[in-house]
Amino acid sequence: MSAMLQLDAEALYAELLAGVRGLLKPEGVLVGIWSGGAWLADRLQADLGRPGAAGVISSTLHRDDFGSRGMAAGTDATKLPFAIDGSHILLIDDVLYTGRTIRAVINELYDFGRPASVQLAVLVDRGGRELPIQPVFAAARVVLPPAQKLTLARDEAGRFRFSLKDRS
User: pTM for the whole thing?
Assistant: First the structure.
């Protein structure tokens, strides 16, 4: 990771946990975006003491670049163990950039029903939006050049860390 950008993923997770605790309605459900968002939602579900499993949703089938990207890992990752109709959904993602993944995920979500509401909470908002999508909560906001990619990783113990790479 660049010496200029040092993000402590575990400290940011603690901020996300506090933010989600304030946002999530008692009847609300967590849905993590494959893959980093799903890791976060799973851990949030446990740390908040909520019964059952968090949902997981994939953007693969609704991406606007599907033709060039093709089928990727996580294609069958969508698992929503609760009814979507009438639910208050809190989408969780690791890094928000252009907004295209969020648009695709919302399309996927509506394939399963019509929620009462959908909100977005992210670990890091890196700016650079191409679509009018804004999180209701971001644990951190950073500015990165478009040539750089910020990625969340998880170790065997479930602890989070970031890596920063140049896009190839």
Answer: 0.91
